[in-house]
Amino acid sequence: MIILSKCSICGKSFGFGEDRYYDRNSKEICRSCFQEKYGEIILETKGGYYYGGHKAYPAGGFLSEEETGHMYLTKNYFIFIKPSFWGRAIKWGIWIPLEKVQLAGYDIRDEARRINLLGGGIGGELGAGLEGGLFGGTLHKSGKKHEIVLPYVDENGILQIPRFGVASIFGGAIKEWAKAIYERIVEIQKEKRSRITGKASEASEVASILDQIKKLGELRELGLITEEEFQEKKKKLLEKI
């Protein structure tokens, strides 16, 4: 009996070669459930980079200055997931609610990149990142890397300033991601201000209605309107709330 991998939320079986997604508890979920939890996917890539900046997740190691992984931009979150070696689980992940991103600190940085490797033979994952592999001699790889800086306050009230990038030719993808992230953060900020303005307006309207009822009560006490008139006008005013 073959046991197929299933979504931990809806129980749907994954098809052969179908991408897996993960929630914040590292549970395997399907694309539909992922979008249900975190919002509709706007952009996604398996060629994402994390350059550090989050206090819980240092980046880099012996041969690299960054972590590679899967990156997602949804309507509500920016997500970076570090997969396991075989890609069928995750080691860790960073989930950033876009409403928590501090737009004043949002930035795109150009950082100089230089890698020096002396002697020996290098292949495998590093070789793939350096166009095939290296055998002997010295490599000097210079240029620029583009970083998207997303400062936000996490669930523990701590300011995090993680930096991310994306693999692309001539920097085209980083521009697409930067534009999409910026536009979505601006939209969320506008929606938040609209909700606050709406609540303030609603509170002001309620206060006005209560003031009118108070004045009607004063007119009743002075005998200028009857009890029946007071109750009728009061009912009409309360129906507006």
Structure characteristics:
PH-domain like; 31% strand; 241 residues; seven-stranded antiparallel beta sheet; alpha+beta; 13 strands
Report the CATH topology name of the largest domain.
Answer: PH-domain like
What does the main sheet amount to?
A: 7 strands, antiparallel
- Strand line-up of the largest beta sheet: 6-5-4-3-13-10-7
Output the radius of gyration.
Answer: 28 Å
N- and C-termini, Cα separation: 62 Å
Percent of residues in helices comes to 25-40%
Counting structural domains, the number is 2
**Any guess at the CATH architecture of the largest domain?**
Roll
Count of helix runs: 4
* Overall pLDDT confidence: 81
Helix/strand structural class: alpha+beta
Low-confidence stretches: 114-142
The CATH first-level class of the largest domain comes to: Mainly Beta
Strand content: 25-35%
Compressed to H and E, one letter per element, the order equals EEHEEEEEEHEEEEEHH
Give the CA-based shape: elongated
Count the strands?
A: 13
CATH superfamily of the largest domain: Pleckstrin-homology domain (PH domain)/Phosphotyrosine-binding domain (PTB)
